[in-house]
Amino acid sequence: MATGLDSIELNQREALPQEIARKLIAYLVSGDIKPGARMPSERALAAALGVGRSSVREALKSLGLLGLVEVRQGDGTYLRSGGSDLLPQVIEWGLLLNERRTMDLVDARQQLEVINARLAAQRRTPEDIKALTTSLRLMGKRTNPDAFVEADIAFHLAVAEAAHNAIMLDIVRSIQSLLRVWIKRAVTEAGETKGSHAEHTPILEAIVAGDADAAAAAMEEHMSRAAERLRKSIAADLSRQAT
Predict the structure, then answer these.
(1) 147: which DSSP letter?
(2) Which contacts of 57-60 are long-range, i.e. CB under 8 A and separated by 24 or more positions?
(3) Residue 133 sits in the same domain as residue 75
(4) What is the DSSP string of 22-47?
(5) How far is CA 54 from CA 17, 59, 89, 230, 241, in A?
(6) Domain ends where: 83, 108, 126?
(7) Are residues 14 and 66 located together in one domain of the fold?
(8) Phi-psi category of 97—alpha, beta or left, where left has phi over 0 and alpha has psi -120 to 50?
(9) What range defines the domain where residue 204 resides?
(10) Of the residues 2, 32, 150, 162, which has the maximum number of CB atoms within 10 A of its CB?
(11) What is the C-alpha separation between 224 and 99, in angstroms, rounded?
(12) Residue 89 domain-assigned?
């Protein structure tokens, strides 16, 4: 058994299958097991974790529903191949396994985006305005969810660029995978892209006008609505898992 599993300590105060699922995620992304490889048996996992096989089975079922593992009847459980998509998938699993922490992250991101919008209105250059305008135009043309998400991310990166604060820009760049998951889930929950696109328009207009207060207010409004769509998406998934 891999060292990553041997070192796992379970918090018995938490719902056991949920805690096991979190620990298995940490093990699966540690590099000890490669995408596409067969995982240890339920018996081996249960022995390594010091829990019953039924708890392990429930945890694996949750990871299967989230697309992390593939259970092949009579052949075992395999880590799905993910390649460069592995990090976004891990975030997706984390969204469902720890809702409270997810919403804390959403709140932190909201504050970051509002600050960036305010700074962008104060510091934007003609080149920044051009990049923002191009990103918003692309969002309006992208009806495919995946393409829309990329255009949406490009817009928020352009806002961070226009803020001309290297630290803030680095933070936004570092959470691109996180943004990709959040935005896609929010768009899917809404069932369309026009609403989200419309929320970005007053942000751009305020930045172009150099109105810092209006830019911050428009961004806060957009982020609040996006957060609510994400909450609904998470709640719907948790409800489906419960049933």
Answers:
(1) H
(2) 58/17, 58/20, 59/17, 59/18, 59/20, 59/21, 59/24, 60/24
(3) no
(4) HHHHHHHTTTSS-TTPBPPPHHHHHH
(5) 9, 9, 25, 31, 17
(6) 83
(7) yes
(8) alpha
(9) 98-242
(10) 162
(11) 17
(12) no
Q: Which of 40, 58, 56, 43 is nearest to 4 (CA)?
A: 40
Q: Residue 225: left (phi > 0), alpha (psi -120 to 50), or beta?
A: alpha
Do 110 and 185 lie in one domain? The reply is yes
What pLDDT score does 84 carry?
Answer: 44
State how far the Cα of 91 lies from the Cα of 180, in Å rounded to an integer: 10
Q: Is 88 among the domain residues?
A: no
pLDDT of residue 79: 82
CB atoms within 10 A of CB 36: 12
Both 7 and 123 in a single domain? no
Within a domain: 205? yes
pTM, 2 dp: 0.65
Mean pLDDT by 10 residues, the chain (243 residues): 48 60 72 80 90 87 73 83 53 58 76 94 97 94 86 94 91 78 78 89 97 97 89 73 59
> So what's the pLDDT on residue 235?
76
Domain count, the chain: 2
> In the structure encoding, which two tokens stand for residue 215, read together?
């830019």
Q: Check: CB of residue 95 under 8 Å from CB of residue 181.
A: yes
Q: Is residue 147 part of a domain?
A: yes
Is 109 found in the same domain as 217? yes
Identify whether residues 129 and 236 lie together within a single domain. yes
Q: Give the list of residues 6+ apart from residue 222 with CB closer than 8 angstroms, or none.
A: 196, 199, 200, 203
Select from 70, 81, 62, 67 the least CA-distant residue to 18. 62
